[in-house]
Predict the 3D structure of the following.
Amino acid sequence: LMWNVEYDPLAVPPSTTQFINIPASMWWGIVTLCTVGYGDMFPVTIAGRAIAGVTMLCGLALFGILTSVIGRALMASLFGEEKEPEPQVIYLDAPSDDPAPVLSGLERLVVLRSAGALNEDEFERAKAQVLATGA
């Protein structure tokens, strides 16, 4: 692509670009994508500079992604995989054929508070409601 943009065989005077053939252009692409950038070849046209900018950004993204993948693999192998805890299932009204016991109103509130679903204020308000209704 860079060779097509930079090299013009019919230019008068002859083009002074260093992108004289496809292998030379591929060399520039590899050097630029690897973020080395020797400076031995550089685009002179606006389209060539735009392609060079995109190539440089792709090189940065490539190395960023590669670094992230390798870092994550090293962390997993050194410290083990961090797995998220599975959510705890609380049966409040179990069907009759379910072996899990059906809890009374106060027991439900205690289970919800111990699971962290209710704070102390919510627990006290709900407890007063349960005691008032007799559930």
Remarks:
- The longest helix spans residues 46-79.
- Residues 21 and 117 are 69 Å apart (CA to CA).
- DSSP finds five helices and no strands in the chain.
- Confidence is low (pLDDT under 50) at residues 98-102.
